[in-house]
Amino acid sequence: MKDDYDVVVIGGGAAGLSGALMLARMRRSVVVLDAGRPRNAPAEGVHGLLAREGTPPGELLERGRAEVRGYGGQVVGGEVTAVVRDGEGFTVTVDGRSVRARRLLVTTGLVDELPEVPGLRERWGRDVIHCPYCHGWEVRDRAIGVLGTGPMAVHQALLFRQLSADVSYFAHTNSPLTAEQSEQLAATGIRVVDGVVTALHIVDDRLTGVRLSDGTVVARDVVTVASRMVARADFFDALGLRPTEHPAGVGEYIPTDPTGRTDIPGVWAAGNVTDLMAQVGSAAAAGAAAAAQINADLVTEETGRAVAAYREPFSAAAEAQLCEAMPNDRRHGI
Question: Helix 280-311 and helix 14-25: axis angle, to 10°?
């Protein structure tokens, strides 16, 4: 790893690698700093990604790293602990070492915060899932339980009803259903189960049911739960880059404009850190788009400097540079 780069990409998922690939192809010096904690690591495959359907997440990322390196970019494993403004650029601290960047692309992703129900975290990405578009086909026609834990739970139940005729909505700790929601669930044949869920019922490493506080076990093959999604951004406080509550009440994200530019000059963001709902394909596309904007911003800056130098070819700075280039006693200067 060098000391200085045009762009440091923080986060080595689909958005970060796609952005780095775009920058490297434009001959920018770029390094991806990857903490190695991809959100989709528990999943067996990536779904909904054209021409890569079902590819294991680790394999997809390894291909991406190889492509970035093939164009001269770098991918370095390490945990970023601090990011601070340094003159016109930034200093990023990773595993005790500092590296400078002219621009930053933040693609750190998010953390799924799950309800405190024993077994949810252990089964996450297997038979506890959250997204019908990511995992729905794999659980079609099975007995699905939707855990009521947030404002999108009923909507989630209606989506999974497309995939199975056996869907139950567990009220759990969610707010009481409105009259409209009750009617929607009844009309689509979704059973409503009252009571607090206290645990998952596991037999031979397989989810077989949901246990309620009164001891009742409702047989289910799959549980879906809407996690609270929180952007990974703790180490950006020194820059003033902080997550904000999502308008839909589903978590916290880093706001950007449509190009991926944040409120902090020189900092762009892409992927789940700014779009909580983004799948792998859209995250990768956003990373590439943000990288193109970063490159354009750098070109604008460099062109401005070139024009200034063109207008004043005999400035004191230019003369000093020429002096340093002359050997021995032939040096001169202003």
Answer: 30
Burial bucket for residue 17 (CB in 10 Å: 0-12, 13-18, 19+)? buried
Residue with tokens 């700075």: 317
- The Cα 155–Cα 79 span in angstroms is 37
- Whole-angstrom CA distances from 286 to 115, 132, 165, 275, 276 are 30, 22, 36, 9, 12
- If you ran DSSP here, which 8-state letter would residue 222 be given? E
Answer for the pair 145, 218: CB distance below 8 angstroms, yes or no.
Answer: yes
* C-alpha span between 200 and 204 (Å, rounded): 13
Query: Contacts by 193-197 with C-beta closer than 8 Å and gap 24+?
Result: 193/145, 193/168, 193/169, 193/218, 195/170, 195/171, 196/172, 197/117, 197/147, 197/170, 197/172
Q: For the segment 285-311, what is each residue's pLDDT rounded down to a tens digit?
A: 999 999 999 999 999 999 999 999 888
Q: What φ, ψ does residue 301 adopt, rounded to 5°? A: -65, -45
Query: Taking the CB of residue 69, how many other CB atoms lie within 10 A of it?
Result: 15
> In this predicted model, what pLDDT tens digit does every residue of 214-272 receive, in sequence order?
999 999 999 999 899 999 998 898 999 999 999 988 999 999 999 999 999 999 999 99
Secondary structure (3-state) at 143: coil
Q: What is the mean pLDDT of the chain?
A: 93
Residue for token pair 């792998």: 280
Tokens of 151: 């404002």
Contact 8, 279 (CB under 8 A): no
DSSP at 83? E
Q: Sheet holding 128-129: strands in order across? A: 128-129, 222-225, 144-147, 167-170, 191-193
Question: Which residue in the block uniquely carries the two structure tokens 């904690």?
Answer: 37
pLDDT band for position 213 (50/70/90)? very high
Residue the block writes with tokens 């000391």: 3
